[in-house]
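Hello,

I think I submitted the 2P0 job twice by accident. Can you confirm which output corresponds to this input? Input:
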Amino acid sequence: MTLEQYLANTLPGVTDIKDVSRAFAPSNIALCKYWGKRQEEFNLPVNSSLSISLGNLGTETSLECSNTDILILNGEELDSSDPFSTRLFNYIDLFRPPSIKLKIETSNTIPTAAGLASSASGFAAVIKALSDLFSWDLSDQRLSEYARIGSGSACRSIYHGFVLWEKGEKHDGSDSFAHLINNSWTDLRLAILDVCSDKKAISSRDAMNRTASSSPYFTQWSDIAQSDLALLLNAIEEKDLHLLMKTAESNAMAMHASMMAAQPTILYFLAESVEMMHKVWACRSSGLSVYFTMDAGPNLKLLYHKDDEAEVLKQFPDAISVNPFVT
Ligand code: 2P0
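Support: Only one job matched these inputs. Its output is below.
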């Protein structure tokens, strides 16, 4: 089945269009990473993944019917040839009647200094706003499926708290969506260590495809992801923060190991990333329970118990702390 056929079968009709709609979606950080696709058109993953959303840090998007398509990102109008604009409107074209033109205003509530502006919250916010604009009232499951089509990790940004993206088995992705898991445990805190916010040399999309197609460790990575996910779900169930943080750190390192073995190699670590890792490990040796995770970039995200926040920020004064449970 093609993407167009799948959408034709599942999208409600457009009968009632509001003038304006607004939506917010949080950024998310994976504790068990999504890395590798089994199908590209629908962004279907090889492995299930688990994330924590970043509370009130994410993307706010408003849509307004207009005579022509306009995209304003963080207060500045983007040229229609801008790659982000092209990608976003190509996505929106899948869902809107061709006669509908939109003025889109989208802004990130995450501090730019955190270097975390991600496509995940952007696509999640836009599909929520489209659902509202067309009075579709889509379920969270459907929103998550549709967000995934924009960007895989966007399917997790539909929710707050701990979120599990089930990889699913079907060709049309109808069983590949995210859902909430136990949300009543709020001890975890994060802090973002911005090592470098420059545009990366290789996008995460290209990097994961290259890893899947050329890394001899890719099969091991997906086996590790599966066993790490079980450990993380157990850690959440048992409220075992140490197990959660330890597993998240080793999962991130396993993902990076799989990409380092790709051809040509992919290395997102900068010298300062490695320096910060050693600092985290030194803190642990001296009794401070702090761990890290890393995504497709050089920045570290520290993980720790809320009671350790003051000490973590003393050790890492430039870190930007996030309470993922404040919404
Ligand atoms: C994650 N990342 O689980 C992993 C960890 C980056 C490292 O999901 O091609 O931008 O749009 O589906 O969602 C980044 O990948 O990729 C990502 P596409 P996406 O958060």
